[in-house]
Amino acid sequence: MIKFNIPPITGKEIDYIKTALNNQKTCGDGYFTKKCNELLAKKSECKNVLLTTSCTTALEMSAILSDIEPGDEVIMPSFTFSSTADAFVLRGAIAVFVDINPKTMNIDADLIENAITNKTKAICIMHYAGIACDMEPIIDLCKKYSLSLIEDAAQAVNAYYRGKMLGTFGDYGCYSFHETKNYSMGEGGAILINNDKMEMAEIIREKGTDRSQFLRGQIDKYTWVEKGGSYLPSDVLAAYLLPQLEAMDEINQDRLNSWNIYYKTLNPLAEHGYIELPFIPSGCQHNAHMFYIKTKDINERSSLIQHLRDDEIQAVYHYIPLHSAPAGLKYGRFVGDDNYTTKESERLLRLPMYYGLTSDTIQKVCSSIAKFYLR
Ligand SMILES: Cc1ncc(COP(=O)(O)O)c(C=O)c1O
Fold first, then answer.
1. Strands 49-52 and 94-98
2. Quick one: 101 and 135 in the same domain?
3. Ligand 1: distance of its center to the CA of 153 in Å?
4. Which of 42, 84, 122, 325 is the most buried (most CB within 10 A)?
5. Looking at the structure, do residues 197 and 218 belong to the same domain, yes or no?
6. Shortest-distance Cα residue to atom 14 of ligand 1
7. Is the distance from CB of 32 to CB of 207 less than 8 angstroms?
8. Gap from CA of 84 to ligand 1 centroid (Å)
9. What is the chain's pLDDT, residue by residue, as a tens digit (375 residues)?
10. Mutate to test the pocket of ligand 1, among 124, 176, 185, 237 (most ligand atoms within 8 A of CB)
11. Same domain, 236 and 270
Protein backbone atom coordinates (compact mmCIF):
# COMPACT_ATOMS: atom_id res chain seq x y z
CA MET A 1 0.00 0.00 0.00
CA ILE A 2 1.34 3.45 -0.89
CA LYS A 3 0.62 5.47 2.19
CA PHE A 4 -0.77 8.97 2.07
CA ASN A 5 1.57 10.15 4.83
CA ILE A 6 4.69 8.90 6.60
CA PRO A 7 5.85 11.15 9.47
CA PRO A 8 9.29 12.67 8.82
CA ILE A 9 12.32 11.08 10.50
CA THR A 10 15.93 12.19 10.01
CA GLY A 11 17.57 9.32 11.92
CA LYS A 12 18.84 11.47 14.80
CA GLU A 13 15.58 11.53 16.76
CA ILE A 14 16.29 8.53 19.05
CA ASP A 15 19.70 9.90 20.08
CA TYR A 16 18.26 13.31 20.85
CA ILE A 17 15.37 11.77 22.82
CA LYS A 18 17.85 9.64 24.82
CA THR A 19 19.80 12.78 25.65
CA ALA A 20 16.61 14.49 26.79
CA LEU A 21 15.81 11.54 29.06
CA ASN A 22 19.37 11.42 30.41
CA ASN A 23 19.15 15.14 31.19
CA GLN A 24 16.56 14.09 33.78
CA LYS A 25 14.64 17.24 32.92
CA THR A 26 11.74 16.15 30.79
CA CYS A 27 9.22 18.90 31.48
CA GLY A 28 8.86 21.86 29.11
CA ASP A 29 11.29 24.69 28.42
CA GLY A 30 14.43 22.58 28.80
CA TYR A 31 17.45 22.47 26.50
CA PHE A 32 15.65 21.05 23.45
CA THR A 33 12.62 23.33 23.71
CA LYS A 34 14.94 26.36 23.77
CA LYS A 35 16.91 25.05 20.79
CA CYS A 36 13.69 24.59 18.78
CA ASN A 37 12.50 28.07 19.73
CA GLU A 38 15.85 29.54 18.71
CA LEU A 39 15.98 27.72 15.37
CA LEU A 40 12.45 28.75 14.50
CA ALA A 41 13.18 32.33 15.55
CA LYS A 42 16.28 32.44 13.35
CA LYS A 43 14.53 30.93 10.36
CA SER A 44 11.42 33.09 10.63
CA GLU A 45 13.25 36.25 11.70
CA CYS A 46 10.63 36.61 14.43
CA LYS A 47 12.43 36.83 17.75
CA ASN A 48 9.49 35.63 19.85
CA VAL A 49 8.72 31.98 19.21
CA LEU A 50 7.33 29.51 21.74
CA LEU A 51 6.86 25.81 21.19
CA THR A 52 3.33 24.69 22.13
CA THR A 53 1.52 21.39 22.49
CA SER A 54 -0.24 21.85 19.12
CA CYS A 55 -1.30 24.39 16.54
CA THR A 56 -4.74 24.21 18.14
CA THR A 57 -3.33 25.40 21.49
CA ALA A 58 -1.22 28.04 19.72
CA LEU A 59 -4.48 29.33 18.21
CA GLU A 60 -6.13 29.21 21.65
CA MET A 61 -3.28 31.30 23.04
CA SER A 62 -3.78 33.77 20.18
CA ALA A 63 -7.45 34.06 21.08
CA ILE A 64 -6.60 34.76 24.75
CA LEU A 65 -3.88 37.25 23.76
CA SER A 66 -6.34 38.99 21.41
CA ASP A 67 -8.80 39.41 24.33
CA ILE A 68 -11.55 37.56 22.49
CA GLU A 69 -14.75 37.79 24.54
CA PRO A 70 -18.28 36.34 24.26
CA GLY A 71 -20.15 37.96 21.37
CA ASP A 72 -17.02 39.03 19.49
CA GLU A 73 -16.86 38.02 15.84
CA VAL A 74 -13.86 36.48 14.17
CA ILE A 75 -13.68 36.28 10.38
CA MET A 76 -12.19 33.14 8.85
CA PRO A 77 -12.61 30.78 5.91
CA SER A 78 -15.09 27.92 6.17
CA PHE A 79 -12.70 25.71 4.21
CA THR A 80 -10.35 25.01 7.11
CA PHE A 81 -9.76 22.64 10.01
CA SER A 82 -12.03 22.80 13.07
CA SER A 83 -9.18 24.18 15.22
CA THR A 84 -9.24 27.53 13.37
CA ALA A 85 -12.77 28.11 14.67
CA ASP A 86 -12.49 26.19 17.97
CA ALA A 87 -9.91 28.54 19.43
CA PHE A 88 -12.26 31.52 19.18
CA VAL A 89 -15.57 29.78 19.72
CA LEU A 90 -14.19 28.39 23.01
CA ARG A 91 -13.96 31.99 24.22
CA GLY A 92 -17.57 32.67 23.21
CA ALA A 93 -16.87 34.29 19.87
CA ILE A 94 -18.92 33.80 16.71
CA ALA A 95 -17.12 32.33 13.72
CA VAL A 96 -17.93 34.43 10.66
CA PHE A 97 -17.19 32.45 7.53
CA VAL A 98 -16.25 33.96 4.18
CA ASP A 99 -15.94 32.23 0.82
CA ILE A 100 -12.61 31.16 -0.66
CA ASN A 101 -10.73 31.95 -3.83
CA PRO A 102 -11.05 28.72 -5.86
CA LYS A 103 -7.56 29.13 -7.32
CA THR A 104 -5.77 28.86 -3.96
CA MET A 105 -8.53 27.57 -1.63
CA ASN A 106 -7.57 30.46 0.69
CA ILE A 107 -10.00 33.04 2.08
CA ASP A 108 -11.04 35.50 -0.64
CA ALA A 109 -9.54 38.77 0.61
CA ASP A 110 -11.99 40.82 -1.49
CA LEU A 111 -14.97 39.41 0.45
CA ILE A 112 -13.70 40.11 3.96
CA GLU A 113 -14.69 43.79 4.30
CA ASN A 114 -18.35 42.96 3.68
CA ALA A 115 -18.26 40.63 6.72
CA ILE A 116 -16.85 43.23 9.13
CA THR A 117 -19.29 44.57 11.74
CA ASN A 118 -18.80 46.60 14.91
CA LYS A 119 -18.41 43.27 16.74
CA THR A 120 -15.53 42.04 14.59
CA LYS A 121 -12.42 41.63 16.73
CA ALA A 122 -10.06 39.60 14.58
CA ILE A 123 -9.39 37.96 11.26
CA CYS A 124 -7.95 34.46 11.31
CA ILE A 125 -6.58 33.44 7.94
CA MET A 126 -5.29 30.00 6.99
CA HIS A 127 -2.56 29.46 4.40
CA TYR A 128 -3.82 26.32 2.66
CA ALA A 129 -1.14 23.89 1.48
CA GLY A 130 1.57 26.35 2.55
CA ILE A 131 0.47 28.78 -0.16
CA ALA A 132 0.11 32.30 1.18
CA CYS A 133 -3.17 34.19 1.40
CA ASP A 134 -3.42 37.50 -0.41
CA MET A 135 -1.62 39.39 2.37
CA GLU A 136 -1.64 43.09 1.39
CA PRO A 137 -5.43 43.69 1.37
CA ILE A 138 -5.85 41.61 4.53
CA ILE A 139 -3.19 43.61 6.39
CA ASP A 140 -4.77 46.87 5.14
CA LEU A 141 -8.20 45.81 6.46
CA CYS A 142 -6.75 44.93 9.88
CA LYS A 143 -5.15 48.37 10.06
CA LYS A 144 -8.27 50.18 8.80
CA TYR A 145 -10.59 48.50 11.35
CA SER A 146 -8.02 47.92 14.17
CA LEU A 147 -8.43 44.14 14.08
CA SER A 148 -6.05 41.48 15.31
CA LEU A 149 -4.62 39.30 12.57
CA ILE A 150 -3.98 35.67 13.37
CA GLU A 151 -2.37 33.29 10.91
CA ASP A 152 -3.31 29.65 11.09
CA ALA A 153 -0.04 28.62 9.51
CA ALA A 154 -0.38 24.96 10.54
CA GLN A 155 0.59 23.89 7.03
CA ALA A 156 2.91 26.78 6.26
CA VAL A 157 6.14 26.26 8.21
CA ASN A 158 9.06 27.35 6.01
CA ALA A 159 6.77 28.85 3.35
CA TYR A 160 7.09 32.49 2.30
CA TYR A 161 5.27 35.43 0.81
CA ARG A 162 7.47 37.99 -0.90
CA GLY A 163 10.44 36.55 0.99
CA LYS A 164 8.83 36.78 4.45
CA MET A 165 8.00 33.58 6.29
CA LEU A 166 4.31 32.84 6.79
CA GLY A 167 3.34 33.16 10.41
CA THR A 168 5.22 36.47 10.74
CA PHE A 169 2.63 38.75 9.10
CA GLY A 170 -0.09 38.75 11.74
CA ASP A 171 -0.07 39.58 15.44
CA TYR A 172 0.25 35.83 15.98
CA GLY A 173 1.33 32.98 13.74
CA CYS A 174 0.47 29.38 14.63
CA TYR A 175 2.39 26.35 13.40
CA SER A 176 1.65 22.65 13.64
CA PHE A 177 4.15 19.86 14.21
CA HIS A 178 1.53 17.11 14.06
CA GLU A 179 2.66 13.87 12.43
CA THR A 180 0.98 14.88 9.16
CA LYS A 181 3.01 18.09 8.86
CA ASN A 182 6.36 18.81 7.18
CA TYR A 183 8.19 18.73 10.55
CA SER A 184 6.79 16.61 13.33
CA MET A 185 6.96 15.88 17.03
CA GLY A 186 3.88 13.64 16.89
CA GLU A 187 1.66 16.30 18.39
CA GLY A 188 2.98 19.82 18.77
CA GLY A 189 3.07 23.35 17.49
CA ALA A 190 4.46 26.83 17.97
CA ILE A 191 3.24 30.37 18.35
CA LEU A 192 5.06 33.32 16.80
CA ILE A 193 4.41 36.59 18.57
CA ASN A 194 4.85 39.56 16.30
CA ASN A 195 3.66 42.26 18.71
CA ASP A 196 4.69 43.28 22.24
CA LYS A 197 2.79 40.51 24.07
CA MET A 198 5.65 38.00 24.47
CA GLU A 199 5.73 38.30 28.27
CA MET A 200 1.97 37.69 28.50
CA ALA A 201 2.26 34.78 26.04
CA GLU A 202 4.85 33.12 28.30
CA ILE A 203 2.55 33.57 31.30
CA ILE A 204 -0.52 32.15 29.51
CA ARG A 205 1.52 29.18 28.28
CA GLU A 206 2.75 28.40 31.81
CA LYS A 207 -0.54 28.03 33.72
CA GLY A 208 -0.81 31.79 34.25
CA THR A 209 2.51 31.99 36.12
CA ASP A 210 5.74 33.92 35.57
CA ARG A 211 7.79 30.69 35.69
CA SER A 212 9.61 31.63 32.44
CA GLN A 213 11.03 34.74 34.11
CA PHE A 214 11.95 32.63 37.15
CA LEU A 215 13.79 30.09 34.92
CA ARG A 216 15.77 32.97 33.38
CA GLY A 217 16.75 34.13 36.89
CA GLN A 218 14.85 37.41 36.50
CA ILE A 219 12.76 36.82 39.65
CA ASP A 220 13.47 34.65 42.70
CA LYS A 221 10.08 32.91 42.98
CA TYR A 222 7.22 32.44 40.60
CA THR A 223 3.52 32.96 41.16
CA TRP A 224 0.09 32.99 39.53
CA VAL A 225 -0.23 36.34 37.77
CA GLU A 226 -2.90 35.86 35.06
CA LYS A 227 -5.39 33.44 33.51
CA GLY A 228 -3.53 30.71 31.65
CA GLY A 229 -3.32 27.14 30.50
CA SER A 230 -0.74 24.41 30.09
CA TYR A 231 0.51 24.90 26.59
CA LEU A 232 4.16 23.91 26.68
CA PRO A 233 5.28 20.51 25.45
CA SER A 234 7.68 18.12 27.14
CA ASP A 235 11.37 18.55 26.31
CA VAL A 236 11.31 14.92 25.09
CA LEU A 237 8.97 15.96 22.27
CA ALA A 238 11.15 18.95 21.49
CA ALA A 239 14.08 16.50 21.20
CA TYR A 240 12.03 14.59 18.62
CA LEU A 241 11.44 17.78 16.63
CA LEU A 242 14.88 19.40 16.81
CA PRO A 243 16.75 17.23 14.26
CA GLN A 244 14.03 17.94 11.71
CA LEU A 245 14.30 21.68 12.28
CA GLU A 246 18.07 21.33 11.87
CA ALA A 247 17.39 19.60 8.52
CA MET A 248 14.59 21.99 7.56
CA ASP A 249 15.92 23.01 4.18
CA GLU A 250 16.84 19.47 3.16
CA ILE A 251 13.35 18.22 4.08
CA ASN A 252 11.80 21.16 2.26
CA GLN A 253 13.83 20.55 -0.89
CA ASP A 254 12.96 16.85 -0.89
CA ARG A 255 9.24 17.67 -0.69
CA LEU A 256 9.52 20.35 -3.37
CA ASN A 257 11.22 17.83 -5.68
CA SER A 258 8.30 15.44 -5.18
CA TRP A 259 5.79 18.25 -5.74
CA ASN A 260 7.51 19.22 -9.00
CA ILE A 261 7.53 15.61 -10.26
CA TYR A 262 3.79 15.33 -9.55
CA TYR A 263 3.13 18.62 -11.32
CA LYS A 264 5.16 17.76 -14.40
CA THR A 265 3.80 14.22 -14.70
CA LEU A 266 0.15 15.18 -14.23
CA ASN A 267 0.30 18.33 -16.35
CA PRO A 268 -0.75 16.59 -19.62
CA LEU A 269 -3.95 15.39 -17.91
CA ALA A 270 -4.58 18.96 -16.74
CA GLU A 271 -3.89 20.35 -20.21
CA HIS A 272 -6.49 17.99 -21.64
CA GLY A 273 -9.00 19.24 -19.08
CA TYR A 274 -9.36 16.03 -17.05
CA ILE A 275 -8.10 17.47 -13.77
CA GLU A 276 -6.95 20.77 -12.27
CA LEU A 277 -3.57 21.26 -10.62
CA PRO A 278 -2.62 23.63 -7.77
CA PHE A 279 -2.01 27.29 -8.59
CA ILE A 280 0.89 29.17 -7.02
CA PRO A 281 0.32 32.96 -7.15
CA SER A 282 3.32 35.18 -7.81
CA GLY A 283 5.24 36.09 -4.66
CA CYS A 284 4.41 32.75 -3.00
CA GLN A 285 7.19 30.36 -2.15
CA HIS A 286 5.31 27.29 -0.93
CA ASN A 287 6.67 24.39 1.12
CA ALA A 288 5.14 21.44 -0.75
CA HIS A 289 3.01 20.63 2.27
CA MET A 290 0.64 18.79 0.00
CA PHE A 291 -0.04 17.92 -3.59
CA TYR A 292 -3.68 17.98 -4.56
CA ILE A 293 -5.65 17.64 -7.75
CA LYS A 294 -9.21 18.67 -8.47
CA THR A 295 -11.63 16.28 -10.14
CA LYS A 296 -14.78 17.27 -12.04
CA ASP A 297 -17.06 16.77 -9.03
CA ILE A 298 -17.62 14.72 -5.88
CA ASN A 299 -18.81 11.62 -7.79
CA GLU A 300 -15.73 11.53 -9.95
CA ARG A 301 -13.59 12.03 -6.85
CA SER A 302 -15.24 9.08 -5.08
CA SER A 303 -14.66 6.83 -8.10
CA LEU A 304 -11.04 7.96 -8.34
CA ILE A 305 -10.42 7.30 -4.62
CA GLN A 306 -11.82 3.77 -5.08
CA HIS A 307 -9.73 3.24 -8.22
CA LEU A 308 -6.57 4.35 -6.39
CA ARG A 309 -7.46 2.13 -3.43
CA ASP A 310 -7.78 -0.82 -5.81
CA ASP A 311 -4.25 0.03 -6.96
CA GLU A 312 -3.16 0.10 -3.28
CA ILE A 313 -2.78 3.88 -3.16
CA GLN A 314 -4.13 5.96 -0.30
CA ALA A 315 -5.54 9.34 -1.32
CA VAL A 316 -7.63 11.53 0.98
CA TYR A 317 -9.79 14.60 0.96
CA HIS A 318 -10.69 17.27 3.49
CA TYR A 319 -12.29 19.52 4.84
CA ILE A 320 -16.05 19.32 5.24
CA PRO A 321 -16.73 23.09 5.18
CA LEU A 322 -17.16 24.32 8.74
CA HIS A 323 -20.32 26.34 8.06
CA SER A 324 -22.19 23.18 7.04
CA ALA A 325 -20.88 21.07 9.96
CA PRO A 326 -23.00 20.66 13.13
CA ALA A 327 -20.75 22.90 15.26
CA GLY A 328 -20.48 25.47 12.46
CA LEU A 329 -24.26 25.76 12.36
CA LYS A 330 -24.27 26.30 16.13
CA TYR A 331 -21.31 28.64 16.51
CA GLY A 332 -20.95 30.42 13.21
CA ARG A 333 -22.55 32.04 10.21
CA PHE A 334 -21.59 32.39 6.58
CA VAL A 335 -21.55 35.89 5.13
CA GLY A 336 -22.12 36.28 1.39
CA ASP A 337 -22.63 33.43 -1.06
CA ASP A 338 -21.01 30.03 -0.87
CA ASN A 339 -19.90 30.10 -4.47
CA TYR A 340 -16.77 28.01 -4.06
CA THR A 341 -16.27 26.65 -0.53
CA THR A 342 -18.55 23.63 -0.88
CA LYS A 343 -18.12 23.06 -4.60
CA GLU A 344 -14.33 23.20 -4.61
CA SER A 345 -13.91 21.23 -1.37
CA GLU A 346 -15.87 18.40 -3.01
CA ARG A 347 -13.44 18.28 -5.94
CA LEU A 348 -10.18 18.29 -4.02
CA LEU A 349 -8.13 15.12 -3.61
CA ARG A 350 -4.78 14.94 -1.80
CA LEU A 351 -2.15 12.55 -3.14
CA PRO A 352 0.58 10.78 -1.12
CA MET A 353 3.18 13.32 0.01
CA TYR A 354 5.93 12.93 2.60
CA TYR A 355 9.64 13.39 3.17
CA GLY A 356 11.43 10.54 1.39
CA LEU A 357 8.70 9.84 -1.18
CA THR A 358 10.47 8.33 -4.20
CA SER A 359 9.97 9.35 -7.79
CA ASP A 360 9.06 5.71 -8.57
CA THR A 361 6.20 5.88 -6.11
CA ILE A 362 5.03 9.18 -7.57
CA GLN A 363 5.10 7.66 -11.05
CA LYS A 364 2.93 4.78 -9.82
CA VAL A 365 0.39 7.22 -8.40
CA CYS A 366 0.37 9.31 -11.58
CA SER A 367 0.09 6.23 -13.82
CA SER A 368 -2.89 5.05 -11.83
CA ILE A 369 -4.57 8.44 -12.21
CA ALA A 370 -3.82 8.46 -15.95
CA LYS A 371 -5.28 4.95 -16.26
CA PHE A 372 -8.47 6.18 -14.55
CA TYR A 373 -8.97 9.05 -17.01
CA LEU A 374 -7.71 7.45 -20.21
CA ARG A 375 -9.31 4.00 -19.92
C1 LIG B 1 -5.32 24.44 8.97
C2 LIG B 1 -5.07 23.68 10.22
N3 LIG B 1 -5.17 24.30 11.41
C4 LIG B 1 -4.96 23.66 12.56
C5 LIG B 1 -4.63 22.33 12.58
C6 LIG B 1 -4.44 21.66 13.90
O7 LIG B 1 -3.10 21.37 14.14
P8 LIG B 1 -2.71 20.55 15.45
O9 LIG B 1 -3.03 19.12 15.20
O10 LIG B 1 -1.22 20.79 15.59
O11 LIG B 1 -3.45 21.13 16.57
C12 LIG B 1 -4.51 21.63 11.39
C13 LIG B 1 -4.18 20.20 11.40
O14 LIG B 1 -4.33 19.46 10.48
C15 LIG B 1 -4.73 22.32 10.17
O16 LIG B 1 -4.64 21.70 8.97
1. unpaired
2. yes
3. 8
4. 84
5. yes
6. 81
7. no
8. 8
9. 999 999 999 999 999 999 999 998 899 999 999 999 999 999 999 999 999 999 999 999 999 999 999 999 999 999 999 999 999 999 999 999 999 999 999 999 999 999 999 999 999 999 999 999 999 999 999 999 999 999 999 999 999 999 999 999 999 999 999 999 999 999 999 999 999 999 999 999 999 999 999 999 999 999 999 999 999 999 999 999 999 999 999 999 999 999 999 999 999 999 999 999 999 999 999 999 999 999 999 999 999 999 999 999 999 999 999 999 999 999 999 999 999 999 999 999 999 999 999 999 999 999 999 999 998
10. 176
11. no
Q: How far is CA 35 from CA 39, 65, 140, 206, 239, in A?
A: 6, 24, 35, 18, 9
H or E element that contains 342: helix 341-345
Q: Which residues contact 43 (CB under 8 A, 6 or more apart)?
A: 158, 165, 245, 248
Q: What is the CATH number of the domain that holds 215?
A: 3.40.640.10
Specify whether 255 is located in the same domain as 222: no
Torsional sign, CA 76, 78, 83, 89: positive
Residue 239, domain member (yes or no): yes
